[in-house]
Design a protein that fits this description.
The protein is an alpha/beta fold and 402 residues long. Helices cover 48% and strands 11% of the residues. Helix 3 packs across helix 4, helix 5 packs antiparallel against helix 6 and helix 6 packs parallel to helix 10.
Length: 402
């Protein structure tokens, strides 16, 4: 528990209004910046126009690259080819996980001008990455992926022969993560729900990971408390513009931004579990958002893990951890571990329903395809699941959410 190694993290600037520090931080690197954003929502961010005007006054040259949907290797390669000769001093990623992942990969390759396929895990030659990377500043506008704190750039090719794999290296970690909860104001309810359940899943899976430590457990539990207090009320209020300026709404945004950041830190240190193992093939083969996969599967995956450990590994320490997670999330003490497990599964199921997270069949997943999904789920995330699941268990997990 008290022997652990902590991988590199960004310098973190957290708090309402922290986005106002971005021009100064950019200027500390130079006068030429590549801005990687999502489609258009960045234009509605608080202070956006002021940010652009400040850069202009400082004679900082701003070039923009837009990312719509989850980034692909082709998108990254095209961006690197288009911008390689511009001599950028810094890359800034502003957006959800897709924009931040794209920014990481682009920043990592601008100086090398090689295809990202050369470094992508499991699909190419997997050459060792030696850099250099252009300095990266990560600014999340959603509360879910925790990408601002990780070394992973997750890229996807969608379709029957698709894949979802990581370009992963400590040199890709952002120099700065600017986490301003007020940037969540523009998130619609479905985005709040999916991203919030992604953060919850990452916190829970890293808490019970076989690589977990006292350090990551403390962060994961703190994050779970924040999700408990903020996710449902933030979801309920996110469709009502009249309450966005209330102090309670600000507190909910702050707690979810905090939880998402902690989820990125913990997953970067100790890995995840079966939900994220399944997210890779599901996100590759079907047009299903990552957060939806997490939200729709986390209750069933938790139940399958617990049943498997009761059956095959009754002394597995993760059983006690799941029971303690139940006490945190349900805000009550349980004197029987099995009762706690039941309460945890029930609560996660209720949240899945309350957040209107759809079943897999909505995205075209059919029972006939489950064997293929199971066969492609044994990636790095599945390797840190607290118990090795049998194929039949993984298939049953998927069936329960068709």
């Amino acid at each position: 528990m008290f022997e652990f190694s902590i991988a590199r993290l960004p310098r973190i600037e957290f708090g309402a209004g922290s986005i106002m520090r971005l021009p100064d931080i950019i200027a500390s690197y130079g006068t030429s910046v590549l801005l990687v954003t999502g489609g258009y929502s960045y234009q509605n961010l608080p202070g956006w126009q002021s940010f652009v005007e400040t850069l202009n006054r400082r004679a900082i040259r701003l070039t923009q690259c837009k990312v719509t949907g989850e980034p692909s290797p082709d998108l990254v390669d095209e961006a690197v080819k288009a911008f390689a000769g511009h001599g950028f001093d810094v890359v800034v990623g502003i957006g959800g996980g897709s924009a931040l992942d794209a920014a990481k990969a682009i920043a990592g390759l601008l100086c090398l001008q090689r295809s990202v396929m050369d470094y992508l895990e499991g699909v190419g030659p997997e050459l060792p990455y030696e850099g250099p990377a252009v300095p990266l500043i990560a600014v999340p506008t959603t509360a879910g992926t925790g990408s601002e704190a990780t070394k992973n750039a997750v890229l996807s090719v969608q379709g029957e022969h698709g894949f979802k794999k990581s370009f992963r290296h400590e040199r890709l970690v952002a120099e700065y993560a600017i986490v301003d909860p007020e940037l969540l104001c523009s998130c619609p309810p479905d985005v709040v729900a999916a991203n919030g359940m992604d953060a919850l899943t990452q916190l829970l899976e890293s808490y019970v990971s076989i690589k977990s430590s006292a350090f990551t457990d403390a962060l994961a539990l703190s994050g779970l408390q924040a999700v408990r207090d903020a996710l449902i009320p933030l979801y309920q209020s996110s469709s009502d513009a009249s309450v966005q300026t209330s102090e309670r709404s600000r507190l909910f945004r702050e707690k979810m931004a905090y939880a998402a950041l902690l989820s990125g830190i913990t997953l970067a240190q100790v890995g995840l579990g079966s939900v994220h193992g399944l997210a890779s093939p599901l996100g590759a083969f079907y047009p299903i958002p990552h957060g939806v996969v997490c939200g729709t599967l986390v209750a069933s995956a938790t139940e399958v893990n617990i049943k498997g450990m009761h059956s095959r590994e009754p002394d597995n320490k993760a059983l006690a951890k799941y029971a303690y997670a139940a006490e945190i999330l349900c805000q009550q003490q349980f004197h029987d571990e099995k009762v706690a497990h039941t309460a945890l599964i029930q609560l996660l199921t209720e949240w899945t329903q309350e957040l209107n997270l759809p079943c897999l069949s909505k995205y075209g997943v059919e029972a006939s395809a489950l064997d293929k999904i199971v066969a492609n789920s044994r990636g790095s995330s599945m390797k840190t699941n607290p118990i090795i699941l049998h194929d039949t268990e993984i298939r049953q997990l998927l069936l329960s959410r068709l």
